[in-house]
Amino acid sequence: MYNEKVMEVFKNPQHMGEVENYNAIGTVGNETCGDIMQITMRIEDGIIVDAKFKTFGCAAAVASSSTATGMIIGKTVEEALKLTNKDVITELEGLPPQKIHCSVLAEDAIRMAIDDYQKRQAQ
Ligand code: FES
User: Fold this and answer.
1) Residue 28 Cβ contacting ligand 1 at under 6 Å
2) What pTM, to 2 d.p., does this model score?
3) Is 94 left (phi over 0), alpha (psi -120 to 50) or beta?
4) Model confidence pLDDT, tens digit, residues 61-96
5) Are 24 and 116 within 8 A, CB to CB?
6) Which of 16, 36, 50, 52 could form a disulfide with 42 if both were Cys (CB 3.0 to 4.6 A apart)?
7) What are the tens digits of pLDDT across the range 3-55?
8) How far is the centre of ligand 1, averaged over its atoms, from the C-alpha of 105 (Å)?
9) If DSSP codes are grouped into helix, strand and coil, which group holds residue 108?
10) Which residues contact 6 (CB under 8 A, 6 or more apart)?
11) How confident is the model at residue 123 (pLDDT cuts 50, 70, 90)?
12) Within the chain, what is the greatest distance between any pair of CA atoms?
């Protein structure tokens, strides 16, 4: 069901865990499948210097979160906000139609983490 790229990332996920001293955290879940994804980041001077994920979900969710965190490290907050689930799917060279929502979790978790960061900044 999954292409080789997805399987490769799923078997060797990068950026797994939790960023030490994170100042941004986003946790999202999908009510239908029950899967949960958490992304933590360390943002300094508007740049995402580190990002990690914890995913309790399917292979597509793990592959999406690993890929998405890799894509935002070194980026500005503004650039990361532009990342969509379509970018993640392109990077993964495609996902089966019934697994598109798994990539949406990654987009949502990143947005939620940045939202959390911006709220902390405003305090
Ligand atoms: Fe729910 Fe993949 S089946 S995140």
Assistant:
1) no
2) 0.96
3) left
4) 999 999 999 999 999 999 999 999 999 999 999 999
5) yes
6) 50
7) 999 999 999 999 999 999 999 999 999 999 999 999 999 999 999 999 999 99
8) 8
9) helix
10) 59, 60, 63, 92, 93, 94, 95
11) confident
12) 46
Tell the residue nearest (CA) to atom 4 of ligand 1.
Answer: 102
- Pocket test residue of 62, 66, 102 for ligand 1, highest count of atoms within 8 A of CB: 102
What's the gap in Å between 46 CA and the centre of ligand 1? 31
Angstrom distances, CA of residue 82 to CA of 2, 3, 14, 78, 111: 26, 25, 21, 7, 9
- Single out the residue of 105, 45, 36 nearest to residue 69, CA to CA: 105
